[in-house]
């Protein structure tokens, strides 16, 4: 008989996760980590295991949980195919700087380097999409590895960690292990940084504040809002980071993402000082690195980022400050600039341009997409969470919806399709009291449609909006621009989405005219079960600023 004081590696793993504050894990079960599943059986209610229908969705749910909470999202997947499916979530977490820990079942130690069933060397395979990947070969070191994983995932620039767990190691017996709950290592600004920032800003005539990236919480968002308000600074946000500032605030000027307001782009280019807190200044925010000159922008650039390695990576700043939004925003809120009274007019101009840009526009067909979002702005609670994946359908969401609280936007800056559905389910499981909307194009939706079963199983009452134009819209737009009327590989045949949803016991409705949307959404919000609304979009309405017929005529 085993010593009563000994435990399995699987139990040591779950104990270490609990010691570091893990509350939920998302995954698809696999025989390679049965000992861990067995240990999870005894901690239901403390660490809940959410069963998903595909590993990509499990990874996306864990990533969404990390975005929402600032704590590492936990994902369990099995070896080989399970991990390769889930890699998309690691890539999103890496590019979005989201804390996440993926735990991977692995072949037994005596089978390594034989190309055993589903064997992969994850340290090589995942090196491009994780901050750290390791394999635990000694059960007595589990607490050490798990503690390090939490700290790596949350410190500096947050991101994903992957740990491979050989199945024999999880079955091995070991002594119980102590673990101290992790605390992230956050960088702080120094007094010299603050003095130089104030000196540069005091000389500014046309400043612009840009926010984005990860590492925010409600307190830092409130602090930066006070800072902008008190100093008369116009504020923009980076790609898919629109909930870092109340979009209804008079200082908010819009998002610098795909399809940004041309007047906002011009305002950034004409700024003499660009104060950037959080964003990496990546390709989407900078319009393919063309909105700002590389490597030295025309503007005086003050760049604050939590990852020291990101400062000067592409754009060489006049002042680089290694600090987290959580540590820097409260300090900024105490600073007042000499010229702030001169900037008030620019704030009003920027806001006027934003209001004009986000006024409802027309589009071909019987459903006017901008009008749907205009209605949702008044119908949804202020703290509603909106989720999306990738596709041209998201351009309407980003332009016409207004995020008012943090966190309320779950969207992949990595541009991953299939993200919105699982992200919304994770959001509803995490915040069952909040309204959660998943926006998806028909192509994006079908990449994770199987997770409707997960929503039904866990009573995750998400409202899924499926914008159906029977095509891969983004690719079709580029195709029509570069090869007009030569349609290839972008047409889709779809199921009856209403019947599909109803087969899972969901409320479902179809919208073919604009005035049908309001009653459909109201019914969905009152349904007390998951709901799906299929919205039929005219194929010619390819983007808020373009039509297929217009692209062809050019």
Structure in words:
It is a single chain. This protein has 554 residues and is of the alpha/beta class. It folds into three domains: 7-174, 3-Layer(aba) Sandwich (Rossmann fold); 191-357, TPP-binding domain (Rossmann fold, 3-Layer(aba) Sandwich); 369-553, Thiamin diphosphate (ThDP)-binding fold, Pyr/PP domains (Rossmann fold, 3-Layer(aba) Sandwich), CATH 3.40.50.970. It is built from 21 helices and 20 strands. Strands 3-2-4-5-7-6 form a six-stranded parallel β-sheet, with helices on both faces. Helix 3 (55-69) packs across helix 15 (420-430). It starts with 6 loop residues before the first strand and ends with a helix. The mean pLDDT is 96.
Quickly count the helices: 21
CATH class designation of the largest domain? Alpha Beta
Rounded mean pLDDT is: 96
Secondary structure category: alpha/beta
Q: Per DSSP, what share of the residues sits in E-state strands of 2 or more residues? A: 15-25%
Number of DSSP E strands = 20
Across the major sheet, the strand order is 3-2-4-5-7-6
Q: How would the global form be characterised?
A: globular
Rg computed from alpha carbons, rounded to a whole number of angstroms: 24 Å
Distance between the termini: 79 Å
> At the fourth CATH level, what is the homologous superfamily of the largest domain?
Thiamin diphosphate (ThDP)-binding fold, Pyr/PP domains
- Unreliable spans are none
CATH architecture of the largest domain: 3-Layer(aba) Sandwich
Count structural domains: 3
The CATH topology label of the largest domain is Rossmann fold
The description of the largest β-sheet is: 6 strands, parallel
